[in-house]
Amino acid sequence: MAMLEVTNFGKRFTIHHLGKTMQAIEQINFSLDAGEFIGIAGKSGSGKSTILKSIYRTYLPDKGSIVYDSKRYGLIDLAHATEREVLYLRKHEIGYVSQFLNVMPRTTSRQLIEKAMLEMGEPTAIAKIEAEKALNHFELDRELWDTYPNTFSGGEKLRLNIAMATVKQPRLLLLDEPTASLDQQSKVKVREIIEKLKTNGTTLIGIFHDIEFMNGLCDKVFDMRTRAIRSPKEGVIREG
């Protein structure tokens, strides 16, 4: 049984002031098993982020189904899940990392990561320990731990964003260009965490413009141009 199966998925956007509706993507089909990592490749504007945001339900899909094998709900179509179900899944099962940090105001870096752990039901003592481990791993300066992240650089915000999502060890993790503004050393830290999550059974979907970063990491690639699944190193291995 697949962990996630996307079937005949399509998404349109309406530009209300122009009275126009545009088809962003259509006929997207792919699936992945538990513990697999699929990369989504394609040019800018091809709809890669739209797929991830629709799985996370930031966007509401127009066509098709996105069936996820949830630990709590069993097989659930994310395209038709209730808001309550979506909120639960975001908090406990599905993580999302983007290039941008959107967090609660007046909350420190340490508190944000601790909160992520507490949402998973971890005791306060464990949350504090794991938060420090994550902050250390991503090499955020100790002076920033008890500081509000609105003052951080772009790279620091991104590292915090990744720490908040990965500390939960989600069942499904969506990565939307998470290394876009990171230096090489920080990219290595991200890769280490992804490899560890994958080893522990997390299923991952990622968008990376850095092709070298994907080498040896993804099990397969979904090509937006051909709508086909291929090996990261070979040609098309089966139709998507």
UniProtKB/TrEMBL annotation:
One GO molecular-function entry: ATP binding
Keyword ATP-binding in record: yes
A Pfam family it matches: ABC_tran
Domain ABC transporter, residue spans: 4-240
InterPro entries referenced in this protein's UniProt entry, alphabetically: AAA+_ATPase, ABC_transporter-like_ATP-bd, CP_lyase_PhnL, P-loop_NTPase
Domain of life the protein comes from: Bacteria
Keywords in alphabetical order: ATP-binding, Nucleotide-binding
Recorded family membership: Belongs to the ABC transporter superfamily.
Name by which UniProt lists this protein: Alpha-D-ribose 1-methylphosphonate 5-triphosphate synthase subunit PhnL
